[in-house]
Amino acid sequence: MIIESLIPIFGVLMPVLLVWVIFAYNTKSEKNKYETIIEVSKNIKDSEEIKEILESLTERKKSTTDFRKTGLITIFVGIGLNALDYYGLGIFAFHLFGLETDIVLGVGLLVMFIGIGLMLAGYVYPNQPYEINKAVEGFEKE
To answer: Considering only 27-31, 44-48, 79-83, 93-97, which range has the smallest mean pLDDT?
Structure first.
């Protein structure tokens, strides 16, 4: 009786606990990073090197998602869903339950078209401009 009344409370508190654990871990990680920067900067005499280290740490990592790769993976997930519909679920669902499995076919086609869109986006947008800009800036410094 008591356990039944505690289940909803735990169900509500578990996401809160999860967010708190993630926040505590990120805070500890950031604190350790800044302490390391301070220790390293104490041992470096050249202010230009300290400036480069700080700039490299403060730069935001931009997403380097390769849309061609994710598109290809998504296309094959859609093909796998269609194959599951045709070879797996289609036979069992129809014979056992008398069901049509057009839903799985539709989901598979949806996933395939999302993959095709991602793949086209990979060819339209330039590939990793952040890395290209960083390489050019490094070459210009030399």
So the answer is: 93-97
Could you count the other beta carbons within 10 Å of the beta carbon of residue 78?
20
**125 Cβ contact partners less than 8 Å away, ≥ 6 residues apart:** 67
pTM above 0.85, yes or no: no
Q: Directed axis angle between helix 2-43 and helix 47-58, to 10°?
A: 160
Residue 114: CB atoms within 10 A of its CB come to 16
Q: What is the pLDDT of residue 10?
A: 85
Q: How far apart are CA 140 and CA 136, in angstroms?
A: 6
Q: Which residue has the higher pLDDT, 92 or 52?
A: 52
DSSP secondary structure letter of residue 84: I
Q: Is the Cβ–Cβ distance between 68 and 122 less than 8 Å?
A: yes
Q: What's the token pair of residue 42?
A: 């104490």
Angle in degrees, 0-180, between the axes of helices 67-83 and 102-124, rounded to the nearest 10: 170
Residue of 86, 70, 73, 80 whose CA lies nearest to 108: 80
